Amino acid sequence: MAITIKDIANRAGISAASVSRILTNRGRFSAATAQRVRQLAEEMGYYKNQSAADLSQKASRVIGVLVPTTHTNFADEIIKGMQRQAFELGFELLIVFLEDDVQHQIKTVKSLLSRQLLAVVMLAVDLETAVFDVLTAADTHLLSISNQLNNGIPSISSDNYAMMHTIVDYLYDQGHRQVALIGAADPDSVVATLRRQGFIDALAKHGIRYNPALIWGIDNAYKTGLETIQNFGVPLPFTAVIGSADIVGIGILNAAKDAGVAVPDDLSIITVDGTNLTQITRPRLTAVQQDFAQMGELAITTIANQTLSPNTIIFTDVEMRPGDTVASL
Amino acid sequence: MAITIKDIANRAGISAASVSRILTNRGRFSAATAQRVRQLAEEMGYYKNQSAADLSQKASRVIGVLVPTTHTNFADEIIKGMQRQAFELGFELLIVFLEDDVQHQIKTVKSLLSRQLLAVVMLAVDLETAVFDVLTAADTHLLSISNQLNNGIPSISSDNYAMMHTIVDYLYDQGHRQVALIGAADPDSVVATLRRQGFIDALAKHGIRYNPALIWGIDNAYKTGLETIQNFGVPLPFTAVIGSADIVGIGILNAAKDAGVAVPDDLSIITVDGTNLTQITRPRLTAVQQDFAQMGELAITTIANQTLSPNTIIFTDVEMRPGDTVASL
DNA sequence: GGATTTTGAGTAAACGTTTACGCACTTCGT
DNA sequence: ACGAAGTGCGTAAACGTTTACTCAAAATCC
């Protein structure tokens, strides 16, 4: 069995309490014994039993993270950011992937909650009400990343409304007047709604009347992108298209190739996300890059600072990443 | 503060021990009280304090998972598989991403070890000796997935040697006689070595003398693929190329496009991994698909069954996935 | 119906750590 | 040199759960 604080205490000829004080760097102890104890701990290969510590101090340092299985390829970026900051501040992440089945989700969340959690972070997930209720019933802090909710849960994400202005402005400057938005048509999604509104308002700002037909595609999935060309038919009723995720853009790119539509000469593509997927296509995708690592870091910092009030929204940076898929008209 | 077993006991008019027995479904209790207790637990919103439970039963149900940050895009597949099986069997996964800095890695691993871990699973990582020593010093079980080690650590992976036979046979059947292997030239990597050996032996089997120049590229990275064409020069000294990972194949595909080499007419490409990346290229990549989810599930099963003896190697399935990047000569 | 087994449930100790409290001893100020 | 303040450390309780041990009551057997 493992080495405990008592083993160290015995060897050092002092009480377990003293060892604990030294190892946690709390309370009073002499530098001399501290030195000796730390040395012994190292030598004997001591590892704190975190469960015992958690039990003793009622507060835990574990943060639960809910990740959707429908793999968004930026989730790892966010997780990396969280992990980095969590490590820095001495927190632990309990990452859990959510299957699609609701009953399964409920069971998963419940088992997650049996850890005394500091907070639960939802990564770009839209939870069913049933699952959501389980979470809110438990009195743990909640935080949503990369997805704004309309129920008061604080969130961290890009400014989806402003982001669409950035994109539309860019396209307008390049001479584009007919622009389509693909993958943000879901009326129930807060993020999609913000994007649509930003899209429409930005066009209006430039005196362009918004054409409802040019907002299409519920999912921001590869399949949505693939079906885009076929849906509108060639010749396309727009010169540029905005993909609501990199993977949507790749779908459009491939569909264009299949249909003999030249990118960017016949069609310009710009996507939202800017993950490294944009670098491995030919031509390279032009994108607005979201700072996912920053979202992750901010999430942990926010939790650590206890600055989680309902309805708070924190916006992270966004940057234009020109690639080779936007033509100047 | 949270509801405890005692609160339930009080309300039910029985002792905490009985409640525990009922909730863990161990020992003796009557169906009637069980019913009542479970009902109360539900009503009162009880969540087991897992820390206390872990402390009480010395054995923990937490499995540590080490994941490299240099993102291999199949890691999530493996994790998903692990998660699914872990949930099934009542285990928990503590997933930790490893930064590149060794000192940082050591600290990370140490903090991981302060949880009483059932086992530590390494996901396709090659650890520095220093980090490795920390792991072996702690008396926890170790298991390596998707990467064979030469130090006795049991592992789960595809049969890399046999896999190269599968690939070479396939290419040979399509008429290819000059074949290159890209991204497996690292002499220190056990996996790369197995692949090289399989490659060479498979060629020999068909009476083809192995040309050392055609094994090139240390990393299985995008960059390696990108530089391949330039490295060999056009016309290429081979008709088919094996990418040691999908991402390498994509690099080769893009470089070929840039160099005016037609795929598959002038060059056939086949990759190892078969992740969904192969579906989003044009043409679609032909690949041998590894069953990553299976690796993950098996890892957990193996740990659960305690069948972890040193030097054990478990092979998972591999399947040929024809795409559009291999031509028949 | 008496002896024996089975059942349901309580008691108490244990897991390893933290921490409030208290005590003896040292240091310091005057 | 005497009281006050400070320092180092030990004692013991607490955190919530599990489990070996008991024991009384109920069920079973012949």
Describe the fold and architecture:
The structure is a homodimer of 329-residue chains. Chain A is α/β, with parallel strands linked by helices and 329 residues long. The first copy, chain A, folds into 3 domains: 5-48, no CATH class; 62-158 and 293-316, Response regulator (Rossmann fold, 3-Layer(aba) Sandwich); 160-290, Response regulator (Rossmann fold), CATH 3.40.50. Chain A has 12 helices and 12 strands. Chain A has a 6-stranded parallel beta sheet, with helices on both faces. Chain A starts with a helix and ends in an 8-residue tail after the last strand. The model of chain A has no long low-confidence stretch (mean pLDDT 92). Chains A and B meet through helix 4, helix 5, strand 2, helix 6 and helix 11 of A and helix 4, helix 5, strand 2, helix 6 and helix 11 of B. Chain B binds a DNA duplex (30 and 30 nucleotides) through helix 2 and helix 4.
